Amino acid sequence: MKMIIAVVQDKDSHKLSTALVEHNFRVTKLATTGGFLKSGNTTFMIGTEEIRVNKCLQIIEENCQSREQLVAPISPMGGNADSYVPYPVDVKVGGATVFVLPVEQFHQF
Ligand code: 2BA
Predict the structure, then answer these.
(1) 4 forms bridges with which residues in the sheet?
(2) Element of type H or E holding 11
(3) Which of 14, 33, 37, 85 would you label with 45, given CA atoms 20 to 30 Å apart?
């Protein structure tokens, strides 16, 4: 068994969970926050048989799109003023960041 952990943008979360459930994947969604942008994203935990991992990755890829996000300048207060960027910059946020982990044991009580 494998555990697929996928960090996706909130905008794609509903579409992705619908598609996964339609294909009989068991899904848990967590409301998470990206460390860099400090804005909300969604983390999916999907436990599945090894043979279905590629199908799951395909569904994630088909339902998540990357987008440009404008990041407001960060105050130099308390930081290094030399690296301060006084204008907003575009950051490309990926469609999905995915980890595939082995599962040692799986129990449902
Ligand atoms: P955030 O940490 O909010 O990052 C959003 C986007 O900002 C990233 O998109 C990347 O384009 C940029 N970014 C992140 N850290 C950066 C840095 N130190 N310098 C410059 N740019 C940086 P993605 O790479 O597509 O990541 C989207 C979200 O996926 C991340 O949101 C984070 O929540 C998660 N993530 C990405 N890589 C991860 C990892 N190795 N471990 C855990 N979570 C990860």
Answers:
(1) 46, 100
(2) helix 10-22
(3) 37
Residues 71 and 88: beta-carbon distance below 8 Å: yes
Q: What is the pLDDT of residue 22?
A: 98
Ligand 1 center to 58 CA (angstroms): 21
Beta bridge partners of 45: 5, 28
How far CA 39 is from CA of 4, 19, 26, 28, in Å, comes to: 22, 24, 26, 20
User: Burial letters for 35-51: b for 16+ Cβ neighbours within 10 Å, e otherwise?
Assistant: eeeeeebbbbebebeee
Using pLDDT thresholds of 50, 70 and 90, give the confidence band for residue 81: low
Measuring from atom 28 of ligand 1, which residue has the nearest CA? 34
Q: What is the pTM of this model?
A: 0.89
User: Which protein residues are within 6 Å of ligand 1, measured from CB?
Assistant: 7, 34-37, 41, 91-94, 97
Across the chain, mean pLDDT equals 91
